[in-house]
Structures
1.
Amino acid sequence: MKKGYPLFVLLAVVLFSVAPIMVARAPYEATMGLVQKIFYYHVPSAMVMFLSAFICGIASAVYLFKARPEADRIAAAAAELTVVFGLIVLVTGPLWARKAWGVWWQWDARLTSTLLMWMIFVAYLLVRRFGGPGAEKLGAAMAVFGMANVPFVYVSVNIWRTIHPTTRVVPTLSPGMRGPFWFCVIAFMLLFGLLLAVRARLEQRRADVEHLYLIAGEE
Amino acid sequence: MHKVTMMKLTTWMIGLWLVGMSGASLVAQAGAPRATPAAAGQAVGQEPQDQFVPVKSLPQQDQLPASTLLITAYGFVWAVLLVYLWTIWRRLVKVELEMQELSAKIGEKSARR
């Protein structure tokens, strides 16, 4: 994996550089026009946020039931990325909504549940940072709750009638929009994989430092 | 003992949460009035839109305010990602320095012995 880092970084940079060109060349949407192009970053960010929340929840469950420290490190990394990509979703969404709906925010099922899910992962990070001894396990339990939210957030637009478009939008994209969209999805997924690996490495190095402190204290 | 209690507590909490969420969904579906198309920003009598429809040209009056929002959104994404990358890099450098200092201290102690 370490040997492949430069290649993946280069690929991610290329994809992110080409993405705006592809988005610019994509056709305009009939009713929303230019502002609909936020879609090409907004939805991939949401996909990454869901994936990250799942990874965090599964890793936290492994840590809770198997007590594996490496799982906790992956969970911590994924939680931070859930918050980062969640922030992107929660900011780009209202920017799009202001033009498309005429309001920045609407307390409907999709928007509210997304905000709540994001807040659970913010709480996870706060608990880990300020919770003191045993905070990792409390945080892990919270992450499992956060992960359990993902399916509800996803289907909320189908269960309740909301302003937000349904989950049928992506599968029924016109051919001109499909290419740029999936290109952006690949770019975001690749970037997420890289960030997760680097962030998990940071946790690993922190664990190494703690181990060294223990050795220094013993000697 | 502590670990077992923690696991039981977590399992119970997850179970209760799932039951609560399912119940809330059912109650909301059964009791809450359906949002009208007008409330959802659509014309009365018009079918709700569930797919994007492309057009070849964009009305002129639609372009300026939308472009500001679009540029802000894309700029924000890039800014957040770059700032996040910078924070990871900064934290990694700090940890590596701490590690070097500790390794040096441990090495000195071992040499004294």
2.
Amino acid sequence: MSTSSPNNNGRHEPNLQCEESAGLDRATLNYIERAAATGLYEIRGLGSKRRLPHFDDLLFLGASLSRYPLEGYREKCITKTVLGSRFASKPIELEIPITIAGMSFGSLSANVKEALGLAATSMGTSTTTGDGGMTQEERRSSKTLIYQCLPSRYGFNPDDLRRADAIEVVIGQGAKPGGGGMLLGQKVSPRVAKMRTLPEGIDQRSACRHPDWTGPDDLAIKIKELRELTDWEKPIYVKIGATRAFHDVKLAVHAGADVIVVDGMQGGTAATQLAFIEHVGIPTLAALRQAVDALEDMNKKDEVQLIVSGGIRTGADVAKALAMGADAVAIGQGILVALGCNAATYVRDGKHFSAVDDYTALRTAPGFCHHCHTGRCPTGVTTQDPELEQRLEPQVGANRVRNYLKTLNMELTMMARACGKQNVHHLEREDLVALTVEAAAMAKIPLAGTSWIPGEPGRM
Amino acid sequence: MGGLTTPVLFDLSKQTLRELNKALHGPLVPGTVYRVENPDGAHSIAVGINAPVEVHIEGHAGYYAAGMNMLATVVIYGNAGPGVAENMMSGRVDVTGFASGGAGASAHGGLLVIGGDAGLRCGISLKGGDIVVGGSVGSFSAFMAQAGNLVVCGDAGEGLGDSLYEAVVYVRGTIQSLGADAQVEPMAESDLATVSSLLGAAGISHPASDFKRVASARNLYHWNADANQEY
């Protein structure tokens, strides 16, 4: 809040005539002015931008006298991750517990989908389709491809279902739990339109509920159908946008999911109403804790695997998520940034070119852009424009994403070794402390230097 | 619809659903007829077939009968639970009795014929398949239907064709109410031909001229950024 303005000497001094309101600050004034001018809600891409309790608010207790650390480069630290061992005859086996989250062809270009497949394959992890179906590019380039079954069922078909390595039934998304998807007309290109059976260039809305089932009892029957269809081979994930995560996870487990994906409110989107992004759902930290509580309460922790997503950016985030009880993480926005989202330049034929003018045209700047919904991505990541999509060469994108995943995995194993673990899945809650009271309460991790977990009886 | 070959029998009171579906996913000889006895309302009967075979279900089926069907002809001699022929790609599914909610949901192709009435959300999210209902359909039928045709020989419930894209609904009886962005339009020659042809395929005889056409007004195709501008 600013209460100062330059006086005659050019110095900033308190000036009650220029006091900024906390309630009606400049961002809020701008919001109201815009609403008054257009009569439309603001739509944007990416995830929540507000400050939230997050993995940054947790710290690791490295080994010391009471715990024995492992040598960073010489002693083994296993990262292998198996997902979907509950009912599926062919579980997913990954080299690292870091997966690529579901993002649609439509929101992303075919080049990007190919790049993600190449990167995931080279790191021994999985990538995921999105609303709009499976592209040949991503199937070809991905060794392990998770096929989403979404409310819209755009492009959903039994051939691709049989070609997939696992099925993810999407109930909701962290950016908009309770909301359907949207893809603005600029991105509904001829190919996207054809895949989704839609007229070209329309502002596409997708449903928020599945067309052929309602409620958890139906979901159990739907999951059985998918199993029968695929001869009980493929793991079935259920993805939930985090709200009442404790109950929703229990219902999903009860419905027969092999793997639960919980997406917190920091999770990204290609296009969603601003009010939805910032005001619906709970932070990933809180959601993860509730999901683990639910699995432990049902005694299913080792039987049903948990993937957490929503704002995972660093190897430390991954390590903390695993320590809290996740089996793996899924990353969307971090991957986009690795590809070049919000970068000042793009690479073509090995040379960097400035994209700043294109950010300016969107009335934004590198580092602040969230204009995925416009399809005018200055670095060619979230676009269907034939010119712009050339700014992301699949091999360049694949190299960047591979490097990013590699870095995260190195950081993850470094943390695990420092905590004395030979396997990243051995990281545990006891390895963590919280920096803030909010994080301590949400994550049920003691505040650093104390044994206090807010709300836990008898632990003051 | 009877095939010339001796039917392969599956008795679901003695054999499991898994055995049936596994057999139907195996290499199949085109034209083979499968006869499913004692279905007893089991869910997911004959889902995921990908061959030109015939399946005769001798009784009521539960959820998702003939789900995601490709190429096969599946006949249910009885009623069908929710999501019959959901996401069908091609082939044909007949229900001699009634169908519950979400019949033919998101079907991309093929023909679904329901002799009796269909419940709520018949043809929801339809993506190119055709549905003929001999009786009436429940509320919110053809919700967000994108392509294909829904022919209703009886009446339609509330909110018919809400948020329709390019699918077309034809109704012979009364429409309780139309959903957002759906409108009644005049029947063109091509509509009469479509209805006649689908009724013919379904084996139901009504004059095509008895039907009304319901299609999208296309007012929801774009967020109208100019509608409420200040100037």
